[in-house]
Amino acid sequence: MTPAAASALTRDEAFARIRLLRSPRVGPVSYAQLLARFGTGEAALAALPDLAGRHGRPYAPAPVAAIEAELSAVRRAGARYLFHDSPDYPALLRAAEGAPPILIARGEGALVHRPAVAIVGARNASAAAVRLARDFGLALAGAGQAVVSGLARGIDGAVHQGALAGTAPGGGGTIAVIACGIDVTYPPEHAALQDEVAARGLLLTEHPPGTEPFARHFPARNRIIAGIAAGTVVVEATPNSGSLITARLAGDLGREVMAIPGSPLDSRSHGCNQLIRDGAVLVQRPEDVLELLSTFDGAPRAPLRETAGPFMLAETADRPADIAGLLTTAPVAIDELVRQSGESAAAVQLALLELELAGTLVRHAGGRVSRAG
């Protein structure tokens, strides 16, 4: 099996954690709670059928053969796993709500220890914006930054090309976060660029090998881009673009949000202009970005919601709270369930975990939950 990237995990524990995360209805929050409650992936796996079975639903973890096939595919791709408690896991991402517990990586692992800035923008970008994105990537990588983007057409591709040109030994470079398996190329015309990023930069994904880039994967990819970086720069974007999702996620995390202004006559600039109107910092040169990020110390610029990062859970409960009657198909904050039930937060979280594993609970952004429809 591919070693767990410089962590002290045993082979069996690493296998168990991968199998745990690939099991039905186990997401980042439930994965973290299971590890906090049972201590190891092996113990958590053993407990899954009983936890889900308390609500009358049979449960089977991910098949062993499927995980063995995944490990072989990761090895063939020349990739490796990064676990959330590994020193090679991006530190800022580890603290972000909803961060993936396990990443698959291919390339220069030292880049995760560099200061990072994300640059995103439109797929159908103007020629001027593409050149600007390339110049920003070149300058920021040359200044020692790990320049993060999503390897998409347009701005993303130009950012990676510029950052690769600015890569120097021991300095900055580029990190591409993809919405598919580590062995899948998307978009097809970026095959050579993806290979070059993997050879000279770092390629990251949360998906198993062979996963195709479905539409639902792109917002999830955007949360990783925002979570890795101290700040996000939007070069050009329409008001409803995925780039604005990335920027807003960065803002939710208390990271810097920056935008390059554009002509009001071009709809591709409307998203950036809107961000600036809403409080994003106007930047026009790479030096503006470096100056803004120079005082970032890893702490959020603004208070986050009252939600701990997914890997910062400590309390456990001996029994689940009785909260089933408080849930409807309308999302409600977990804090509200704690208040209305009069139970401890740990008991409420255990009840939610059991309901989620049984398939009767849905988790939503912002620490909200609902009964499954």
How would you describe what is shown here?
- Residues 314-367 form the DprA winged helix domain.
- InterPro entries: DprA, DprA_WH, DrpA_SLOG, WH-like_DNA-bd_sf.
- This is DNA-protecting protein DprA.
- One of its GO terms (biological process) is DNA-mediated transformation.
- Residues 81-293 form the Smf/DprA SLOG domain.
- The protein is an alpha/beta fold.
- The chain folds into three domains: 11-104, no CATH class; 111-293, Rossmann fold (3-Layer(aba) Sandwich); 324-371, Arc Repressor Mutant, subunit A, CATH 1.10.10.10.
- It is 40% helix and 13% strand.
- The protein is built from 14 helices and twelve strands.
- The protein has helices at residues 11-22, 28-38, 41-53, 64-76, 91-94, 127-142, 155-166, 191-200, 217-228, 242-252, 270-277, 286-293, 334-341, 345-357, and strands spanning 80-83, 102-107, 116-120, 146-149, 173-177, 202-205, 231-234, 256-259, 281-282, 332-333, 361-364, 368-371.
- The chain has a nine-stranded mixed β-sheet with strand order 1-2-6-5-4-3-7-8-9, sandwiched between helices. Strands 10-12-11 form a three-stranded antiparallel β-sheet.
- Strand 3, helix 6 and strand 4 (146-149) form a beta-alpha-beta unit.
- Helix 1 (11-22) packs parallel to helix 3 (41-53), helix 6 runs parallel beside helix 7 and helix 9 crosses helix 10 (242-252).
- Mean pLDDT is 91; it is low at 1-7 and 303-309.
